[in-house]
Inverse folding.
């Protein structure tokens, strides 16, 4: 189990689980969790492992409200502020590599809203909740960044809906048979994201071999 470091924000301490690849890093990938879940969700762990093997530093960030044991999410403004503080600390530790941000569900929304502010080179949005279930009129499509390359990976049975790639910077991939949890095939979801990271130039070149292997935690919650 990767140890959790606490980083102080204006809304309480946030948690960071940082995993380093073997050898020099190609990029820094920072991931956030869903509203009521944690950073050990199956899709986040699968992406962590795939990204580590491809040479990325991977940080999984727990928002202050979750670190304090609360399930009800904090207001969006507080989430964004805490995330931005954590990103500034992590960015200072890895200043010479590209920064890719992302997460699942609520964490994907935070990463999208703050992408420009933190200087992200790309955004990975897993299970982006386009609207509350049954409320398509309350679209959150405007949160998707128009100025940063963004990958959205959603299940085609997600009750929160699926965005449409309305701008050239956003690519949307539907995972067949998946719902919001993306639990059916997390390895396949991670492979889709890894292909996109490779295309962006944020991984080690294919065929590079470095001694060492990434950790593998057990996924306990969504």
């Amino acid at each position: 189990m990767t140890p959790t470091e606490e980083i102080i924000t204006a809304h309480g301490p946030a948690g960071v689980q940082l995993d380093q690849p073997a050898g020099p890093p190609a990029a820094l990938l920072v991931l956030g969790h869903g509203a009521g879940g944690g950073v050990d969700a199956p899709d986040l762990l699968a992406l962590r492992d795939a990204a580590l093997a491809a040479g990325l530093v991977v940080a999984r960030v727990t928002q202050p409200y979750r670190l304090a044991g609360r399930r009800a999410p904090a207001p969006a403004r507080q989430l964004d502020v805490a995330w931005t503080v954590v990103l500034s600390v992590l960015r200072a530790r890895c200043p010479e590599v590209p920064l890719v941000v992302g997460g699942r569900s609520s964490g994907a929304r935070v990463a999208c809203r703050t992408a420009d502010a933190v200087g992200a080179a790309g955004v990975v949005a897993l299970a982006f909740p386009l609207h509350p279930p049954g409320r398509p009129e309350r679209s959150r499509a405007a949160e998707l960044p128009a100025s940063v390359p963004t990958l959205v990976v959603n299940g085609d049975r997600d009750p929160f809906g699926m965005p449409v790639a309305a701008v050239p910077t956003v690519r949307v991939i539907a995972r067949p048979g998946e719902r919001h949890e993306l639990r059916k095939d997390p390895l396949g979801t991670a492979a889709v994201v890894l292909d996109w990271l490779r295309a962006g130039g944020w991984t080690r070149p294919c065929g590079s071999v470095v001694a060492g292997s990434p950790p593998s935690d057990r996924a306990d919650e969504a």
About this structure: Helices lie at 42-53, 64-67, 76-93, 106-118, 186-199. Residues 209-222 have pLDDT under 50 and may be disordered. The radius of gyration is 16 Å.
